[in-house]
Amino acid sequence: MSNFKWNRFVDTFRWDLASQKRFFLRKLLGMFFAFLLLMYIFHFSGEHVGPFYQVVMYMYVIIGISELFKNLNTKQDYVTYLMLPASHLEKYVVRWLSFTVIWIIVGILGFLAADVVSLLLSYAFSWNDHVMNISSVWDNISASAPTNGEAWMGWISFAVFTVWLHSVFMLGGTFFRRNASLLTTSVVFVVGVLLIILIFKSAQHIDWDVYELNETVAYWYLIVGGSVFTLLNYYLSYKIFKRYQIITSKWVNV
Prior knowledge:
- By secondary structure, this protein is an all-alpha fold.
- Helix content is about 75%, strand content about 0%.
- The protein has 9 helices and no strands.
- The chain has helices at about 5-20, 20-45, 50-65, 75-80, 90-125, 135-145, 150-175, 180-205, 215-240.
- Helix 3 (about 50-65) runs antiparallel to helix 5 (about 90-125) and helix 7 (about 150-175) runs parallel beside helix 9.
- The radius of gyration is 22 Å and the shape is globular.
- The protein starts with 5 loop residues before the first helix and ends in a 12-residue tail after the last helix.
């Protein structure tokens, strides 16, 4: 079987969406009610909470990728999925698309639906403010838009960091067989804390006057280094996926 054929890939993508439509519908309803509750709580605060909704959506997108193989719960699930007439690369890319592009669309639709219902409720119950929360989110995004070269480098660095974090959670979602979201988040938290402690302890013994870095050069280090580690994480994730077996360890897919 050739590694990638477009027609076969499209058929696999259609099958994947059809087989997981109930899962994505549940996530859509979950995001709708979660945002609706948050909008109800923050409605009476009178504060601009656009950044808070952005953080919630950011965490939803990043952590969500670790659920890409959550539907493989039983031996029969593994048999059905591994026997699909598609290459490993096609199935891997399909899952990446489903839990990145479709996942983001589901989250945005949940937010917009909650925003519309929240506005209708404000009129129905005669609340003081009748506003769309999406406008607050958009205003915050517009206000932070880059206006010069250094600002653009900062945005690009943040985008690379986001994709790197996405690749980390995808690696965890591929590696862990059960509770992938919780276990990956726990590992990232523990490793992050240890690295921060190590950096602060090491910084006390470094003469920083010797290591003067231009801000633009520092951004380039982040962009290039982050890109390399992102590709490495996706590569390791794909290699683990290619080794999937029907009978594996209880907790990990190796």
